[in-house]
Amino acid sequence: MSDDAPARTTLAPEEADALDAHWRAANYLAVGQIYLMANALLREPLRPEHIKPRLLGHWGTSPGLNLVHTHLNRVIKARDLDALCVWGPGHGGPAVLANSWLEGSYSEVYPDISRDAPGMEALFRQFSFPGGVPSHVAPETPGSIHEGGELGYSLAHAYGAALDNPELLVACVIGDGEAETGPLAGSWHANKFLDPVNDGAVLPILHLNGYKIANPTVLARLPQDELDQLLRGYGHEPLHVTGDRPAEVHQAMAAALDRALDRIGEIQGAAREGGATERARWPVIVLRTPKGWTGPAEVDGKPVENTWRAHQVPLPGVRDDPAHLAQLEEWLRSYRPEELFDEDGRPRPEVLACVPEGSRRLGATPHANGGVLLRDLPLAPLERFAVRVDRPGASRNQPTEVLGGLIEQIMADTADRRDFRLVGPDETASNRLQAVYGATAKVWGEEILPTDEDLDRHGRVMEVLSEHLCQGWLEGYLLTGRHGLFSCYEAFVHIVDSMVNQHIKWLKTSRTLPWRAPIASLNYLLTSHVWRQDHNGFSHQDPGFIDHVLNKSPDVVRVYLPPDANTLLSVADHALRSREHVNVIVAGKNAAFDWLSLEEARAHCARGVGIWDWAGTERTGDVPDVVLACAGDVPTLEVLAAASLLRTELPELAVRVVNIVDLARLMPHEEHPHGMKDAEYDALFPPEKPVILAYHGYPWLIHRLAYRRRGHGNLHVRGYKEMGTTTTPFDMVVRNDLDRYRLVMDVIDRVPGLAVRAAVVRQRMEDVRTRHHDWIRAHGTDLPEVADWSWSD
């Protein structure tokens, strides 16, 4: 026992015995899931045919997780707490499944896995078995909001769940392997953004069992005083629970939880009733128990318990090695299952004495099935925010600034219900969304100086220079039944590539589970994009997040490239109303031409792709000579400028202009629900005609999306090809061959017979590009005919 363990003992002998019975039952069930497919209650001697042919799962962390679950049950029941637990060592799936089966929540969502002997055998058999459930805590697990397969995100998820949930306690078990990751290290700072008045509490439980899969862990080997200094530096007060004797650990864990919850109550009371504003030092429990606790001490003469060998399957040769089989049976019987389960295989009353009732059970909390708590977001009519467009290109606006008015109104309309958050890494004003500060400030729990602006302890805009933390907060917030938007520089959203992978997988799996209610979509607004990095240059130029997302489940992912302010409003309105999607919206923040009225924008966005007949020169009923297509705001500008040049230089040419808002429309209908059927695609892009497509990102993505189309051989794509620097806006498109003059040259090169007839025009286009090169180096600005260009019918 640690000298820093809480001194008072809180458990009477009969309560301690009941807790130990529950813990032993959970341990038995965890081992059974890894090994057994029959003879679940050991009613006969264990034989090889009772053992699974493939032994998969993680034992090492499971006894510690079972201890936490057991003791959380006690305090939830005793204090009538509204609680959720995030299981960072999510590979300890056997433990969380075992506890949800014990409490009955598992059988409620899966009636065929009943809480009796046949149900126990089914529970064991399905684990890591074909047609069964994963070895990790997953969407299939009642009470979970956290996959845990990829480590590093548990604490951020926990804080996201606590935001705007003032009565909720979120316990978060952090594995010591996970604690070595960068995202987790950054997440310790989330307590500086927690509002004790309007938010719930997060209780981190740092589980130090000493080892990862094959190595010791850093924090477990730190001297205790150094670890305490680290945790206190993060703003926490550590409470230590250390030991390997169950009776002593039960007492210490109960005392630590009571002390932690008392302290949380004091902090919240001081802020809510006493008006305290200084940031409090929140408790953290440091739990040190052996890896693989209560499992085999040695196997084949080598130490296992309290070593890395206990991480996964301590006895790997059970079907083939009689000694291993005997050792497994001895291990299972050490939990005395006959004391824990009755003749029908049901948990005995003393095992369930600590279990809360109804929705207080960790596996039944509605906060882990956030869709049941979700309310529709109040969205004001877009007419209040739309810009007036009398004719295409007659005015300019900053699209994200226009969107900022809508976000401000959402913040105002959710001020009382507090279920919408805007997150981003230090970029809200930079991305022109500063109107939101008219309704709420940025939350900030540290000292606020007179020179600071838009900071408040109760704000709902969250800025921290960690994309991981922003993503984790928002995921936890959405998964517990709320709404939000993540605004980020386009190049740096890549930092959360792995996190969005996990969230997409979670949503894909959740769609197959009828008991999981749909949650609000994860919405990205990517701006400060590749084509306008005037301050930053090459390091800030990467449009590849689109490629990354479109590789994922087509049922979940959506990518939108609105070309102006009104289409951005329409797309945002759709995304914020949607459920169970990941919506990626890429839009500029700089002043840009307004092309469509709100009514036109709505119709265009509903189609996802469409002909802008006012921009082309094709006649009704005729087949165009060439299609100029565009996806993205800057490509749209360059295509329209190219169309204008073609109208002047080659008036006899029939040019069709097509704008793409929903990028998945290019995919076959069989591959994506938004994809076009072949007939529809061929009508827009006649297979025998050249198509010049100007695209916001990497051009090869478009070829991948459209490779099965009949006209793919006539498709020529211009886009970003890693030619970046700090330069003028137009020089960026010239460097990447996306400019209007290059597009005109592409048309001349690809329309049959035009190369000879329009050789002079092509030469003039090339000459302008040369003149541009010299001009910007002499003047530092774009050519006047580019800088002053406007659309004219």
UniProtKB/TrEMBL annotation:
Pfam families per record: XFP, XFP_C, XFP_N
Cofactor(s) annotated in UniProt: thiamine diphosphate
SUPFAM superfamilies: Thiamin diphosphate-binding fold (THDP-binding)
Domain Xylulose 5-phosphate/Fructose 6-phosphate phosphoketolase C-terminal: 589-791
Database matches in CDD domains: TPP_PK
E.C. designation(s): 4.1.2.-
InterPro entries in the cross-refs: Phosphoketolase, THDP-binding, Transketo_C/PFOR_II, Xul5P/Fru6P_PKetolase, Xul5P/Fru6P_PKetolase_C, Xul5P/Fru6P_PKetolase_CS, Xul5P/Fru6P_PKetolase_N, Xul5P/Fru6P_PKetolase_ThDP_BS
Domain Xylulose 5-phosphate/Fructose 6-phosphate phosphoketolase N-terminal: start-end pairs: 12-372
Domain of life: Bacteria
Primary enzyme class: lyase
Keyword Lyase recorded: yes
Keyword annotations from UniProtKB, A to Z: Lyase, Thiamine pyrophosphate
Cited PANTHER family: PHOSPHOKETOLASE-RELATED
Family note: Belongs to the XFP family.
Name by which UniProt lists this protein: Probable phosphoketolase
Naturally occurring in which organism (per UniProt): Streptomyces lichenis
